[in-house]
């Protein structure tokens, strides 16, 4: 029973995270997926999206702040 509850909780959390990411502006969503899900380097992301490295880092930071605010009620 405990495992089923944990599995359900994990599914719920994953769904919340996916919805939060989906709600980001496209320019933030793209970089956060490339960095935190696909684990690409900042340099690779810069080349893929065609913006300077500093812009990539700024967008990733802003996306993480937005996600943190959106998901603050989820306990780790």
Biggest β-sheet description? none
Q: From the alpha-carbon coordinates, what is the Rg to the nearest angstrom?
A: 15 Å
Strand percentage, roughly? under 5%
Unreliable stretches, pLDDT < 50, 5 or more residues?
A: none
Order of helices and strands: HHHH
> Count the strands?
0
Annotation field: number of helices: 4
Q: What number is the mean pLDDT?
A: 93
Give the end-to-end Cα distance, rounded to a whole number of Å. 21 Å
How much helicity do the residues have? Answer: over 70%
Structural class: mainly alpha
The global form is elongated
Task: Please write out the topology.
Layout: H1 2-22, H2 26-37, H3 42-49, H4 53-70
Helix pairs in contact: 2-4, 3-4
Describe what you observe in this structure.
This protein starts with a helix and ends in a 6-residue tail after the last helix. It is mainly α and 76 residues long. 12% of the residues are buried. The model has no long low-confidence stretch (mean pLDDT 93). The chain contains four helices and no strands. It has helices at 2-22, 26-37, 42-49, 53-70. Helix 2 crosses helix 4.
Structure keywords:
76 residues; mainly alpha; 78% helix; 0% strand; elongated
What's the short version?
This protein has 76 residues and is an all-alpha fold. The protein contains four helices and no strands.
């Amino acid at each position: 029973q405990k495992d089923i509850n944990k599995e359900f909780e994990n599914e719920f959390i994953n769904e919340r995270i996916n919805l939060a990411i989906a709600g980001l502006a496209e320019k933030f969503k793209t970089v956060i997926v490339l960095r935190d899900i696909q684990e690409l380097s900042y340099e690779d992301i810069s080349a893929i999206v065609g913006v300077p490295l500093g812009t990539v880092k700024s967008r990733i930071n802003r996306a993480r702040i937005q996600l943190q605010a959106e998901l603050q009620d989820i306990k780790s």
